[in-house]
Amino acid sequence: MAKYLLLKHYRGAPAPANDVPMEKWTPEEISAHVQYMRDFAERLEQSGEFVDGQALAPEGTWVRYDGEGRPPVTDGPFAETKDLIAGWMVIDVDTYERALELAGELSAAPGAGGKPIHEWLELRPFYATSPTATDDCHAGG
Length: 141
Description:
single chain, alpha+beta, four-stranded antiparallel beta sheet, two-stranded antiparallel sheet, 6 strands, 30% helix, 24% strand, globular, disordered C terminus
């Protein structure tokens, strides 16, 4: 099994086919979208392929260590991540092809007008499970 991150973006990815921002959806359209996501995750739980999934709130703060005995430095709220990352799902599947299949299915969640969004999802393997992870660690050193 290999773990993959399915990353949902607000912005930064190519425009989806049904390109209506969620803030313009009706409450019913939002409910249908959320239910689709829940049903998808539940099905993957039953197959043993679901690891975790979360939607992200728009608030956030940058935090940095500033030395021993000093409080963390904060800066924010910030624009970059909250404007880009909407949420994620972690899956654990047998093959890359299965990860592609599931990402494609998740991309079809309903949006405005009840039509599939066909949004672009970022599919990334976890570093530890990447076929070249060990090679990359030892390259050049």
